[in-house]
Amino acid sequence: MRLYNSLSREKDTFVFPQDRPVTLYVCGVTPYDTTHIGHARTFLIFDVLVRYLRWQGAEVRYCQNVTDVDDPLFARAERDGERWQDLAERQTAQLLEDYRGMNILAPTYFPRASAEIGTMIPIIARLIELGHAYVVAGNVYFSVRTDPEFGKMARMGYDELLLTANQRGNNPNDPRKRDPLDFVLWQTGNPGDPTWESPWGLGRPGWHIECSAMATRYLGDQIDIHGGGADLLFPHHPCEIAQTEPVTGKRPFVQIWMHAGLVWLDGEKMSKSLGNLVFARDALREHSADTLRWYLLSQHYREDFIYDRAEVARAGDAAQLLRTALEVTGGSGLPLHFEVPRSEFAAAMDNDLNTPTALAVLHMMAGNMVSAAAEGRDVTACQAILRDLAVALGFTLNA
Ligand SMILES: [Zn+2]
């Protein structure tokens, strides 16, 4: 199987581990708002990856974190006069409900950052010991100059790295930093924010260290596949590499880095900050899980996805054809054979998870079966194959 690796910028052959399960880590959400289709598409893609790996006979250990130590969560809780823990709890429960609604499998491990502070502190301490991090007035920063390969995944020069980091939450004007691109490992935070005890005083972790800690704790020093949305290409994922590799002493931290394109609505990126959101639970009121799945998989995962409400209905027709083909009763005529489409399906999925082609194969099979059944041919064996492939993609086959 070949998967596009954002670090090598090539479709790399995925090396299946011989003596342990495949490990997958996907950066999860900050639970302060309901799951929107942009998030849902990312998690749906990794759901399909997990299902397909299992379909091929692999065992998969999948960890997805909950970023419940993060500024937007604290800000929202304060705005609404609510305990941040209660907000996080409610939104995490909603996320799991949205997953069930969309037939997205729950991850094997679903750790919350707030419960993993004790995992993060030793990593930060070790980075200081190794000279990769420094302490200023209760804050700990990672020194990017100590890593000559810092930000390699982004393929940008220093100025562009800094500009991008600034657009995504970096504070270049923090006078305690040695370099404006240095990032926070531990911080005293804003007044009123929750804090935890640490060797550097009361404070809380930075966002990037949360994922290094949870990924290595649950999946090991080196993991097979690490995924997330394309907005994590920089700085989040390069920061994870910079923090993790010196501490474990093992390279590479990750075999394949996978990034899902972003979702657009009405000409803009669907995001909480812009407020142009389609929530998963609203979409599920209008459409079945299968319709949404067909629609969201109809473009390749690495491409940005333009969500078009009118197109969702068209996907509903395709999902219906799938069900019809599985329900038709053929005759005792010449049996229909599907060995070729089955290998075409696998070839498409093995080629960097090419779901549009895989869906086209399913669609063609379903159409042929309906016609063949009408001509009195035996479609029983084909129905078993189609059902197997549809389930491998996560279709429920319920209306
Ligand atoms: Zn992460």
Task: Summarize the model shown.
Helices cover about 45% and strands about 15% of the residues. It is α/β, with parallel strands linked by helices and about 400 residues long.
How is this fold's topology laid out?
Layout: E1 2-5, E2 10-13, E3 22-26, H1 37-55, E4 60-64, H2 71-79, H3 84-101, H4 117-129, E5 133-136, E6 139-142, H5 158-167, E7 183-187, E8 204-205, H6 207-219, E9 223-229, H7 236-248, E10 254-260, E11 263-265, E12 268-269, H8 280-286, H9 289-297, E13 305-306, H10 309-327, H11 339-350, H12 355-374, H13 380-392
Parallel strand pairs: 3-4, 3-9, 9-10, 11-13
Antiparallel strand pairs: 1-2, 5-6, 6-7, 7-8, 11-12
Helix pairs in contact: 4-6, 4-7, 6-7, 9-10, 10-12, 10-13, 11-12, 12-13
What does this structure look like?
This protein is α/β, with parallel strands linked by helices and 399 residues long. It has 2 domains: 253 residues, HUPs (Rossmann fold); 83 residues, Anticodon-binding domain of a subclass of class I aminoacyl-tRNA synthetases (Four Helix Bundle (Hemerythrin (Met), subunit A), Up-down Bundle). The chain is 44% helix and 14% strand. A 4-stranded parallel beta sheet has the order 4-3-9-10, with helices on both faces. Strands 5-6-7-8 form a 4-stranded antiparallel beta sheet. Helix 4 crosses helix 7, helix 9 crosses helix 10 and helix 10 crosses helix 12. The protein is elongated, with a radius of gyration of 23 Å. The two termini are 32 Å apart. The model has no long low-confidence stretch (mean pLDDT 96). The structure holds zinc ion. Zinc ion binds next to loops.
